[in-house]
């Protein structure tokens, strides 16, 4: 499927301001600044397993089915319930306080998150 693969972060925009808005400490933000996060995505039709692996062994995994409510975890270890949608080839997570889209553009994973009026963009290249 279109999203299946492993992706390594290549570039990001507005990292620090976004992480501050999420409530991460300055120390945590600094430690994560140059992490090469690996996103491991498995897609089977409308079912997704979406994991992010950080140096040092920390991982966040979210499993969801498009169109069904699920509980998700953020990088700030916050949990929330949301119904994930697919709109024009984009995976869309939209809750009262958080908006996230993910799409494949020219073979790269492009993710845009918005929280508290702050946008964060991450582009990852496919490595497997």
Automatic annotation (TrEMBL):
<dbReference type="InterPro" id="IPR000463">
    <property type="entry name" value="Fatty_acid-bd"/>
</dbReference>
<dbReference type="InterPro" id="IPR031259">
    <property type="entry name" value="ILBP"/>
</dbReference>
<comment type="similarity">
    <text>Belongs to the calycin superfamily. Fatty-acid binding protein (FABP) family.</text>
</comment>
<keyword id="KW-0813">Transport</keyword>
<dbReference type="Pfam" id="PF14651">
    <property type="entry name" value="Lipocalin_7"/>
</dbReference>
<dbReference type="GO" id="GO:0005737">
    <property type="term" value="C:cytoplasm"/>
</dbReference>
<keyword id="KW-0963">Cytoplasm</keyword>
<keyword id="KW-0446">Lipid-binding</keyword>
<feature type="domain" description="Cytosolic fatty-acid binding proteins">
    <location>
        <begin position="5"/>
        <end position="22"/>
    </location>
</feature>
<dbReference type="GO" id="GO:0008289">
    <property type="term" value="F:lipid binding"/>
</dbReference>
<protein>
    <submittedName>
        <fullName>Fatty acid binding protein 6</fullName>
    </submittedName>
</protein>
<dbReference type="InterPro" id="IPR012674">
    <property type="entry name" value="Calycin"/>
</dbReference>
